[in-house]
Write a structure and sequence with these properties.
Layout: H1 2-30, E1 39-45, H2 51-61, E2 67-79, E3 83-93, E4 101-109, E5 115-125, E6 134-136, H3 139-142, H4 144-147, H5 150-163, E7 169-182, E8 184-195, E9 200-210, E10 213-221
Antiparallel strand pairs: 1-2, 2-3, 3-4, 4-5, 6-7, 7-8, 8-9, 9-10
């Protein structure tokens, strides 16, 4: 009887170990491998960015004089000559009546822990023309994912209605950066885009909303 019990215990242990091995293998297969030079797109709202990553942005941007820059969104990193980190910020030149704009900044941390800026580029800015002008949002307006206001929820609904039938990409709203009164209103969003093959990128989406109808009318690559 004891011999039979011992055999049963051994069988149960083997089944348990096999199950754990299969579970671990499944988890390993779901981990995305990022090659050197590829961007690991992992957007984080400003309230969720790690302090050490915020420090990289602050140390790099403080060398750029004459412009006030507010960190709005972390986009992800890239292993290339050290590590590159990409950010979206809201910027204003420091003189009266200056117009705000949004820009992408890519900071590099070298193998020697030296921080530098390798890319800085405007994404969208206020139009100079009065008729049909593009108007950049305030810092609070932009943070639609974390403000939990009625206005933000309405904008998220407009976004989701416009992209729900898109076949090539899944779009996820990250920031609301500008608006433009035309036939209806054009809304400008920074979004994470996931293609059918699982590749992620960051894009600027223009969505027109007119009489409760939303349509994606333009897509621009950001990262």
């Amino acid at each position: 009887m004891r011999k039979i019990l011992s055999i049963l215990v051994m069988i149960l242990v083997l089944i348990s170990c096999t199950g754990k091995k299969q579970s671990n293998t499944a988890k390993e297969n779901t981990v995305k491998t990022v090659k050197e030079g590829d961007w690991n797109i992992d957007p984080k709202q400003v309230n969720s960015i790690d302090e050490n990553i915020k420090t990289i942005f602050n140390d790099a941007s403080k060398t750029l004089l004459g412009v006030k820059r507010e960190l709005m969104l972390y986009l992800g990193n890239q292993i290339l000559n050290g590590v590159n980190y990409a950010f979206i910020c809201r910027s204003e030149i420091t003189y009266p009546s200056s117009s705000p704009y949004y820009e992408i900044i890519v900071c590099n941390v070298s193998d020697k822990n030296e921080i530098s800026i390798v890319k800085i580029e405007k994404i969208i800015e206020n139009s100079q023309n009065s008729a049909g002008a593009i108007s950049c949002t305030s810092s609070d307006e932009a943070k639609i994912n974390i403000s939990n206001s009625k206005e933000s929820n309405d904008l998220i609904k407009i976004f989701k209605d416009a992209v729900k039938d898109i076949k090539d990409f899944e779009y996820i709203q990250e920031l609301y950066v500008a608006k433009q009164v035309v036939k209806g209103i054009n809304h400008y969003f920074i979004a994470k885009a996931i293609s059918n093959d699982g590749t992620s990128s960051v894009k600027l989406l223009t969505i027109n909303n007119f009489i409760e109808s939303s349509e994606l009318i333009n897509v621009k690559d950001i990262l």
